[in-house]
Amino acid sequence: MDADLDTLAIALYVKIDDELKARPELVKPGPAGGIAPKLSDPELITMAVMQALLGYHSERRWLRHMGKHLRHLFPYQPKQPGYNKRMHAALPLIKHFIRALAGDTDFWFDNHWILDSTPVECGRSRPTVKRSDAAGWAAYGYCASHSRFFWGLRLYLICTPTGMPILWALADAKIGEREVVEAMLDREPHLLADGPGLLLITDKGFASKRFEKDLAERAVTLLRPNRKNEKTRPGQALLKSVRQLIESVNDTLKGQLDLELHGGRTFTGIAVRVAQRLLAMTAAIWHNHKTGQPVTRSLIAYDH
Asked: Nearest Cα to 1, choosing from 300, 303, 292?
């Protein structure tokens, strides 16, 4: 089967529709006697994925493009206020389908996990910081990789070497990285129980005896680079190539899916736009895997 945008959209719609029919409890019930929405949840989520893959940051520009070029896929064209409201309400569904698509591939059972965090900037000017509805959640942080300060959040992503998301979280940029990761693992302990012998690969920023001991108690082995004054740790020869994998996943999210151009201004607005991009990457990997493409994280077939 060919990998192209229309094929991905149809396959994704069918997958979401089948899942929602099998699990109707996932759909929030509407008011009794209310009018049925003209835009179904599977159509909405498929729209959101296509928006991210095609690089439309503006919802208004995306809806104009969709109305002109994609009516064969989406006969009903929502207005921007309605689309925005439905997207915010669909955040739980988007989060669910990131996991559902990941679980529908062989990559879900990989016992090698890669962990990294990356800045998600939410504003640059001082007036924006003061007025933003994200104030109190977003904060000033420092990105050592790019030697810059930023105001916003950090996206923590645990994924397989193919880039398939396992766990993710958005956190205050000032909170310690190890603290956030421990909270992520505490929230879903069954993931560790289902995958014994896990190897968690990180950068040296996660170096900590207490953190490593905590992972060991969860039956997780930590693989990270040596610090300057440390003896050579096992597996150091593997880390150079793995580090490139970590950077390439971040480059997919930022360079191709424009993670830092999300445009969110509220708690839900930022979260749903980040989740939208994670779902788009997950959907591309899922579809590439199902169609036997040689590079599973390639978005080239879907970005035009």
From this structure: 292
Q: Which residues of the chain have pLDDT under 50?
A: none
How would you class 39 by CB atoms within 10 Å of its CB: exposed for 0-12, middle for 13-18, buried for 19 or more? middle
The single residue listed with the structure tokens 């480059």 is: 251
What is the helix (H) or strand (E) element at residue 248, kind and residue range? helix 236-251
Give me the domains of the chain, ranges plus CATH numbers. 109-262 (3.30.420)
Paired residues of 121 in beta bridges: 152
Comparing CA positions, the residue from 258, 158, 254 lying closest to residue 215 is 158
The two structure tokens encoding residue 103: 């679980």
> Residue 45 CA to chain centroid, in angstroms?
14
Q: 9-32 as b/e, with b when 16 or more CB fall inside 10 Å?
A: bebbbebbbebbeeeeeeeeeeee
Residue 277 CA to residue 254 CA, distance in Å, equals 9
In whole angstroms, give the CA distance from residue 205 to residue 116: 9
With contact defined as beta carbons under 8 Å apart, do 151 and 139 qualify?
yes
Which residues, 6+ apart, have CB-to-CB distance to 199 below 8 Å? 111, 112, 113, 220, 221, 223
- Give the pLDDT confidence score for residue 32 in this predicted structure: 66
User: Which tens digits make up the pLDDT trace of 165-202?
Assistant: 999 999 998 888 999 999 999 999 888 877 678 999 88
- What DSSP designation does 38 have? S
> Which region holds residue 101: left if phi is over 0, alpha if psi is between -120 and 50, else beta?
alpha
Q: Of 101, 216, 211, 95, nearest to 160 (Cα)? A: 101
- 125 burial (CB, 10 Å; 0-12 / 13-18 / 19+) is exposed
Q: Minimal CA–CA distance to 276: which of 298, 258, 303, 291? A: 258
> In this structure, what token pair is assigned to residue 177?
């990285």
pLDDT score, position 286: 97
